[in-house]
Amino acid sequence: MIKIAVCGAAGRMGQRIINSVIEAEGVQLSGALERPGHPMTGQDVGLVAGCGALGVNISDDLNAVIAGCDVLIDFTAPKVSLKNLEACALKKKSIVIGSTGFTPEERELAVELAREIPAVLAPNMSVGVNVCLKALKDVAKTLGDDFDVEIVELHHNKKKDSPSGTAVRMGEVVAEALGRDYNKVANYHREGICGERTKEEIGMQTVRGGDIIGEHTVYFIGMGERIEISHRAMTRDMFSRGSVRAAKWVVGKEPGLYDMQDVLGLK
Ligand SMILES: NC(=O)C1=CN([C@@H]2O[C@H](COP(=O)(O)OP(=O)(O)OC[C@H]3O[C@@H](n4cnc5c(N)ncnc54)[C@H](OP(=O)(O)O)[C@@H]3O)[C@@H](O)[C@H]2O)C=CC1
Ligand SMILES: O=C(O)C1=N[C@H](C(=O)O)C[C@H](O)C1
């Protein structure tokens, strides 16, 4: 039995991950974490997640929760995840991170910290999005520079980071396939007389509203034709099931920072 603890357990994703852990085979829930002072600290996490009492209370004691698990699943925010990665590295435990909004420097730090332990860091844990990422590489390589690339993502009005981690990863994959540097060609803002579109740029557009779980479309726009590669999430459950799949996969792997393409064998 692999012992899984969940950080951000009372959050939108955390609650779904608790449900996915108890539904999965070969794993058991060993702990649930929230930030110090969280109003749900001390409550049974199963009641908070809507799946009935589990006998695991929400804790704010990071070190105790990590000590009791084989792998921590963390869907919170970049700074919290980096702190948790460091704590897992000290205790030689594995970690699966789903948080998004990492700066390039924070991602570098994650690579450094994961030299000690096996860790998965992925902006999207659904099978569908990861298959799209693989397809995007092929499509971009085949189309080359003749098609303009624009990426549009839609999410709920509580999302804190923009563009989504998934949209950024899609942009990175396309840019790399086209021999471009994503950080130089991503265009996040057009307003006023900003001039004609450059050939190299990848437009990144963000929509926020209501309860949209997550939708991503990559447009390849040519002269007289257009390809759209879209993914629409209808529930959060394929993210949470993906995180449990990653947790089962990562325990026992060589130290290093892996992503969901590694977990799903898509590389
Ligand atoms: N990789 C993937 O497949 C997916 C990734 N995500 C990403 O996951 C992250 C979380 O999303 P979501 O669940 O919607 O966000 P929520 O805000 O609903 O959940 C985050 C939870 O983490 C808690 N938290 C904050 N600080 C700490 C801390 N120091 N220790 C423990 N818990 C803490 C929050 O508490 P409080 O509310 O009190 O701050 C909250 O309960 C985002 O970055 C999102 O983009 C989302 C879906 C899929
Ligand atoms: O915050 C969310 O909700 C989501 N975040 C991830 C991202 O930023 O890509 C994945 C998913 O689209 C939901």
TrEMBL record:
SUPFAM superfamilies: Glyceraldehyde-3-phosphate dehydrogenase-like, C-terminal domain (SSF55347), NAD(P)-binding Rossmann-fold domains (SSF51735). Transmembrane segments: none annotated. It is an enzyme of class 1 (oxidoreductase). The active site is at H155, K159. Pathway: Amino-acid biosynthesis; L-lysine biosynthesis via DAP pathway; (S)-tetrahydrodipicolinate from L-aspartate: step 4/4. Keywords: Amino-acid biosynthesis, Cytoplasm, Diaminopimelate biosynthesis, Lysine biosynthesis, NAD, NADP, Oxidoreductase. It is found in: Cytoplasm. NADP(+) binds at R35. Gene3D superfamilies: Dihydrodipicolinate Reductase, domain 2, NAD(P)-binding Rossmann-like Domain. It catalyses: (S)-2,3,4,5-tetrahydrodipicolinate + NAD(+) + H2O = (2S,4S)-4-hydroxy-2,3,4,5-tetrahydrodipicolinate + NADH + H(+); (S)-2,3,4,5-tetrahydrodipicolinate + NADP(+) + H2O = (2S,4S)-4-hydroxy-2,3,4,5-tetrahydrodipicolinate + NADPH + H(+). Pfam families: DapB_C (PF05173), DapB_N (PF01113). The keyword NADP applies. (S)-2,3,4,5-tetrahydrodipicolinate binds at H156, G165, T166. It comes from the Bacteria. Its EC number is 1.17.1.8. Residues 128-264 form the Dihydrodipicolinate reductase C-terminal domain. InterPro entries: DapB_C, DapB_N, DapB_N_CS, DHDPR_bac, NAD(P)-bd_dom_sf. GO terms for molecular function: 4-hydroxy-tetrahydrodipicolinate reductase. NAD(+) binds at G8, A9, A10, G11, R12, M13, E34, G98, S99, T100, A122, P123, N124, M125. NCBIfam families: dapB. Homotetramer. PANTHER family: 4-HYDROXY-TETRAHYDRODIPICOLINATE REDUCTASE 1, CHLOROPLASTIC-RELATED, DIHYDRODIPICOLINATE REDUCTASE. Belongs to the DapB family. This is 4-hydroxy-tetrahydrodipicolinate reductase. It comes from Pelotalea chapellei.
